[in-house]
Amino acid sequence: MAQVRVEEARQPFLRLEGIRKQFGSFTALRSIRLDVSRGEFVCFLGPSGCGKTTLLRIIAGLEAQTEGTILQGGRDISALPPAQRDYGIVFQSYALFPNLSVLDNVAYGLVNRRAERAAIAARVAELLKLVGLPEAGAKFPAQLSGGEQQRIALARALATSPGLLLLDEPLSALDAIVRVRLRQEIRSLQQRLGVTTIMVTHDQEEALTMADRIVVMNHGVIDQVGTPLEVYREPATPFVADFVGKVNMLAGTVEAPGRLRIGAHGFACTSCNASVGKSVRAYLRPEDIVARPIVEGDVNVINSRIEKIEFLGSYCLVRVAAEGLEGQPLTVYLSLNYLSEMALADGSPMKLRILAERMRVFEA
């Protein structure tokens, strides 16, 4: 028996094998393969139309895949209707019943399962306390703010203790301050409950701050699966490099192993595997170009002039024109304190150093 439990623990809680979805002549998803571990928080991230919501709906049984298999907890659920799948779901629009009280909204799934009245009341009280709204049971959805409605939708999704929680852009309808607070609360709640969670979002910041792993999707395929740090620091494709976070893109050629020619400059680059003479694009995050004191012997040093400073609070996004990189401006993150200390403003000259180990290079 112990051996069986060990084997079950090693198996992914959710497995997608060769999922394809066709809408007439349009292919929305192509051969999607993904394993999700028990208790993991996974974000499907990508632009509108990339297939992330379609994939979530297929997992939920709200959409039927054209091909492929879905296994949850070792059970094939590929052809099961939604009611026979083990999940709770929260939609972008909350989808609360306006004519039911908060208490009745949260209890809805338990009532349908014919749970005992005392058990329902105890479970609803527990969940309302869990989402921070213990006194809201008698209210109706229209009496709640957007953030409170989303908490109630989350409580309703968790009421039946599902093995899988599905979140379809749950924060996109909220204002920025509420969104930041609620994403922290959702992540904290997920970690306490240990419920396996999949969230669809097009917001990179949400994915980077909430997920254990991010699944970056584009045109119906998965471009990369990795931790937030892996996806941000080590993008697998030019699309991922460009889509996740801010980035500088510089066109050049490989002039020698580990050396790039960009404009009038030769740069050291530790991650360049393209053959000599190949046209390439080098991707750099703004923080990978540093302005801290540059000393004799530093490599990848360039002279530049500040064109524009965009104030973002404690730091600024600084656009510079670099000598020898005509037509390829750079953006750099600099702290407000550093700008003040160095008396930098529009038009100021400054030396910059590009970190050789942070360049991500792809063939053009």
Task: Report what the structure shows.
A hairpin with a 2-residue loop joins strand 9 and strand 10. The strands form four sheets. Strands 6-7-8-3-9-10 form a six-stranded mixed beta sheet, with helices on both faces. It folds into two domains: 2-241, Rossmann fold (3-Layer(aba) Sandwich), CATH 3.40.50.300; 249-363, RNA polymerase II/Efflux pump adaptor protein, barrel-sandwich hybrid domain (OB fold (Dihydrolipoamide Acetyltransferase, E2P), Beta Barrel), CATH 2.40.50. The longest helix has 18 residues, at 176-193. The chain is built from ten helices and 20 strands. It has helices spanning 2-10, 52-60, 102-112, 117-130, 146-158, 176-193, 204-210, 228-233, 238-243, 336-341, and strands at residues 14-23, 26-36, 41-45, 67-72, 75-76, 87-90, 164-168, 196-201, 213-218, 221-226, 248-256, 259-262, 265-268, 279-284, 289-290, 301-311, 315-322, 330-335, 349-354, 360-363. It has 364 residues and is an alpha+beta fold. Helix 3 (102-112) packs across helix 4 (117-130) and helix 4 packs across helix 5.
